[in-house]
Amino acid sequence: MKTLVTKSPWIAALFAAGIIAYLLYLENTCLQVTRYEIRCHRLPRAFDGFRIVLISDLHGNTFGRGQCRLVDAIRDFEPDMIAIAGDFIDERQFTLAPALSLLQGIQGVAPICYVLGNHEAASGKFDTIQAQVEDFGVNVLRNRTVSITRGDDTIKAIGLDDPLAFDPALGRRKRQLQEELARVTYDKPGAFTVLAAHRPELIDIYAAYNVDLALCGHAHGGLIRPPGVGGLVAPGQGLLPRYTAGLYDVGNTTMVVGRGLGNSAAFQVRVFNRPELVLITLRSTE
């Protein structure tokens, strides 16, 4: 009897640890699909119902064999555009294979636009990455624009490099980012603009150049999201970050921030913050 009583606290502790480990496993591997319908006052009527998939921060994570859970969710949505907002790989472990598996599964579903995150910029291997993703028909938008046309109407899709890809001189990166954004938004200034850029904390810059819709990641949902509190910490924003997940309006710009699909090698735990695939439907107010 004494032995049973002595062991009981250890059994309870092991059971509790097992439950916690299982819940953390679910939090870090169970895909959540989030849908937004966004009303855009400058969106041409021909683009009413335009569907965008936002993929961010895969970091080499996998969702079933051949990324089947991600692929099925994307294909079922029947998107008109797929935006990859950076950190498709993790530079510390250089995990490109899961990203290529996803591209293989969604090749031909819709035009794919891909921008650099800080991990691509820091990897020193972006030429290799670009060559391989372009084999799947991906548009790598390094500070450039592509036009999307429906009937007589056109919108612009812009890709902006992560600041780590710019001049590292003190204070130069932010200025160069602004210069590049000014350059790529100069043509057709009245066109509805969708910007894919990695960092949500730069929303004031995006808004200053009249971007209509910004698609971002990087914050990983704030890593730990206590109910009713939101994210606790995010790269580039520190403690109690402002931009971690969901919709934000600054001026005439609406920003969508995805919580991301994976974790960087530096921090591998999500709490109340499942991996997220974002599906967006645009609605015209005209």
Description of the structure:
The chain has 286 residues and is α/β, with parallel strands linked by helices. The chain has a single domain, classed as 4-Layer Sandwich (Purple Acid Phosphatase, chain A, domain 2), CATH 3.60.21.10. It is built from seven helices and 14 strands. The strands form three sheets. The chain has a six-stranded mixed β-sheet with strand order 1-14-2-3-4-5, covered by helices on one side. The model has no long low-confidence stretch (mean pLDDT 90).
Briefly say what this structure is.
The chain is an alpha/beta fold and 286 residues long. It is built from seven helices and 14 strands.
Shape: globular
Total number of strands: 14
Multimerization state: single chain
Count of domain modules: 1
Instruction: Report the helical percentage.
Output: 25-40%
Record the SSE blueprint.
Elements: H1 2-29, E1 32-40, E2 51-55, H2 68-77, E3 81-84, H3 97-106, E4 112-114, H4 118-123, H5 126-134, E5 139-140, E6 144-150, E7 153-159, H6 172-186, E8 192-196, H7 203-208, E9 213-216, E10 233-234, E11 238-239, E12 246-250, E13 253-257, E14 276-284
Parallel strand pairs: 1-14, 2-3, 3-4, 4-5, 7-8, 8-9, 9-13
Antiparallel strand pairs: 2-14, 6-7, 10-11, 12-13
